[in-house]
UniProtKB/TrEMBL annotation:
This is Uncharacterized protein. The lineage of its organism: Eukaryota, Viridiplantae, Streptophyta, Embryophyta, Tracheophyta. It comes from Capsicum baccatum. It comes from the Eukaryota. PANTHER family: INTERACTOR OF CONSTITUTIVE ACTIVE ROPS 2, CHLOROPLASTIC-LIKE ISOFORM X1 (PTHR34224:SF11), INTERACTOR OF CONSTITUTIVE ACTIVE ROPS 2, CHLOROPLASTIC-RELATED (PTHR34224). Keywords: Coiled coil. The keyword Coiled coil applies.
């Protein structure tokens, strides 16, 4: 019982407190009828246990255990034997202390509950061991596959090393040839760049000269524009004056036309008066001649 954890002991005490009357009755029956049988129980040697009770082998190094621990482990793995031992201890205690029957019955029920908890714990441990073993086997398989793949890769690398080295030398020679070619091309580009720089400097000088000329032309055009604006203003002024003069001439022409019309009328009247005067003169002359003729006669 020394192998149990405090948690298992607490659970055992709680289960003992909730033990039903049927468990107590069973303990009483075992007390009366099982004393003789328990006396004849012999503890088997843990070394002579059958392969059926043996636990699965655990890979790895195990620490040495004392005989008491081995017996305890054997009892935990054989619940039936543990129950028999518990009954034996119970009957021995009953014979020595008959006045503490109820306490012994409670202890028996507690032992039974501990046996059940130990079985559950053992089952869980076995399940965990199987799972761990399966995982270990799977890891071993993966490691074996990876090792085989690594060996194949190493062989391929060894096989390709010679060809890769030759390829590397070829690529290095090609790279050197390319470097020489690029250097020559770079020299040509540098010379061309120098020529282009000289041409660019000359072009910049020409552009500067053209810019100065353009500034002069712009100044001249500005002066011409100012002169043109002044001439345009003078032309507009002359145009206004001409318009006013034309208006005045039209008025004078109208007045002249009216004067001409008046003059023509006057001349016509003068002509009529002259005609009348001539007629009057002719009439006077005629009358005068007739008077003279009359006087002569």
């Amino acid at each position: 019982m020394s192998m149990q954890t405090p948690k298992a002991r607490t659970a055992s005490v709680e289960v003992t407190q909730r033990t039903s009357p049927s468990t107590a009755k069973t303990a009483r029956k075992l007390r009366t009828s099982g004393t003789a049988e328990v006396d004849s129980v012999s503890f088997p040697n843990p070394a002579s246990r059958t392969p059926k009770d043996r636990s699965p082998k655990v890979i790895g190094r195990r620490s040495p255990q004392s005989p008491a621990i081995e017996v305890a482990l054997f009892l935990l793995k054989s619940p039936q034997m543990l129950l028999r031992c518990s009954l034996f201890l119970f009957c021995k205690t009953q014979q020595k202390r008959p006045g503490r029957m109820s306490a012994l019955e409670d202890q028996l029920a507690q032992l039974q509950e501990e046996v059940r908890a130990a079985k559950e714990q053992l089952s869980l441990s076995e399940s965990l061991k199987e799972t761990s073993q399966q995982e270990a086997d799977e890891v071993k398989k993966q490691l074996a596959a990876m090792s085989e793949k690594l060996e194949k890769t190493e062989k391929q690398l060894i096989e390709r090393s010679d060809s890769e080295e030759a390829r590397f030398l070829e690529l290095r020679k090609i790279s050197q040839d390319k470097d020489l070619e690029w250097q020559s091309e770079l020299e040509v580009v540098r010379k061309q760049h120098e020529l282009d720089s000289a041409a660019l400097a000359s072009s910049l000088n020409e552009i500067q000269k053209l810019k100065l000329q353009l500034d002069r032309v712009a100044d001249s055009e500005a002066i011409q524009v100012r002169h043109a604006e002044s001439a345009h203003a003078e032309t507009e002024s002359l145009r206004v004056q001409l318009k006013e003069t034309l208006t005045l001439l039209e008025k004078l022409q109208n007045q002249l036309n009216k004067s001409k019309e008046s003059e023509a009328a006057v001349l016509e009247e003068v002509s009529k008066a002259q005609l009348e005067l001539e007629v009057a003169k002719m009439t006077g002359n005629t009358l005068r001649s007739e008077g003279l003729k009359a006087m002569e006669a």
